[in-house]
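Running log. JK asked me to keep both predictions on one page so they can be read side by side. First protein, sequence followed by its tokens:
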Amino acid sequence: MKTTLLHIKNMVCPRCIEAVRNLLVQAGYTPTDVTLGQAQLDNDTPVDPATVAPLLREAGFDVVMGRADQLTEQIKTALVEYLEHLRTARMPLTTSAFLTDRFAATYSHLSKVFSRTANLTIEKYLIRLKIERVKEMLSYNEMTLSEIAEKMRYSSGQHLSNQFRQVTGRSVSEFRRDLLPRRLSLDQLA
């Protein structure tokens, strides 16, 4: 099956977009638009996703074949954007409102598809995503735990601290004492 739109897993940042674009060009394809989770190819150069998958896999990406998997990857990408929305919006939307606006689908449907394909609820994935962002902020050692909690929209530093321990198995102080804090790449969250 030839297509001009590839759905690609594990794209989480602008460097990923550039890496995928370069991989496709090196393989002889003409990408017209590459965004988080997708690569649109020129109509004259359709591709069989199965042939480009090994090339992308070698670089840490993967082609998403099924519709449920595609939707799950799109939800993951939207949740990364939601974290930025949380951080910057004066009156942020709830997760469900943000996702239903983005996908024009009920939250119940999105949640069922995500849970089935990711083996994790949207809420738990978002918590893991937030904790990874918290680890990043902690590793810079520029803000107090209370400041990080406020920036990440936690009700208190204690709430953040409790959730951090639940997810990582370590306290915030243990994480800060660690000389080489171990962070997870976003594709390892689910």
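And the second, directly underneath as requested:
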Amino acid sequence: MPRGRYSLHDPHDHTPLAEEHFQCAPGPSGWRYVSRLTAPSGDHLGSVDLALDELGRPIRLELHAASWQIRGAALDGVTWVRTDPTGTHATEGNARAHAFTGSSPAFLIATARLLRLTPSAPATRVRLVALTDPVLAPLTVDQSWTLVEREAHATDNGPLTVDEYQVTALDTGEQHTVHLSGDVVLAAPGIELEDLESPPSALD
């Protein structure tokens, strides 16, 4: 069960945004990721609880940020309920999308699990509902994912397989690189792995 800490920063000017303390593990139904986020000041910022089924679809998502809350799941595409900080207004949403995405590293792993790409596979298009900071506003986005390279690196605990993905935002053409090892993000724009207490779990 990998557990550790990511640092999140603005990918453009590198302003520190948060630290995300996480743990994740495969389970009988798929995979689950839970985390809590703290500001550079140490204040609590929010939390993530994401569970996937064996096919990588989100069967339960609960996000908290700035007192806003999202509960969502894969249902007729993806469906969610967004609640405001006062708890008096809840808005339902639905989109013909495959899954959710957002600032948490959990969503990169979830998309990789959903697509299950191989290095020889062509670029694969995926439609996601992005839950954008700071108020978890939903925005539908289209991305293209390609598994560029899969390399095994020798470590004290045996070989560590690292996958390099190229992710393209189809609305702007902007590209970035994501490095994953199993269910841990090693590096991605705005994300750095600062601490890892145990090796990653395999994706399959």
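Observation for JK regarding the second prediction: The mean pLDDT is 94.
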